[in-house]
Amino acid sequence: MSPRKGDMDADFSHTLSSGRAGLPDLMDALEVWLDGAGVPMAAASAVMIAADEVLSNVLDYSGAARVDVAATAQDGRVAVEVADDGAPFDPTAAAAPDTSLDVDDRAVGGLGVLLVRKLMDEVGYARDGGRNRLRFSRSYDLVSPSRPMGE
Predict the structure, then answer these.
(1) Per the structure, how many domains does the chain have?
(2) 80 is a domain residue
(3) Which range of residues forms the domain containing residue 50?
């Protein structure tokens, strides 16, 4: 999945330009929207965890002055796009951490990206117009061997 500018008509849209101070309000608004959109709790919780991880990384490491979050829920899938004007970074290209090592022997970092990949069905990145665009989505109506109905 490759996010492209303008390919997501947002049912939810929020701009964060106040840095970390605005994150709680954004997360509250996203949670209210997910509930109102009828996204089941298991899928909504996974999206909230992924969004918090992605947004925290953007705010802590990218140097972004502006972060835009858009989301849609349709056809049994919720999709979120986080676009920022920070330093270029493709989290989908990051190597997965070696979780077989003892915690004291592992390199710092990478677990959040791994968590997002595990929680979401699809994760895609593009650098477009001087902005990072990370899009992630999760199905909630489909039954799969690894995810029973509605999880």
Answers:
(1) 1
(2) yes
(3) 12-139
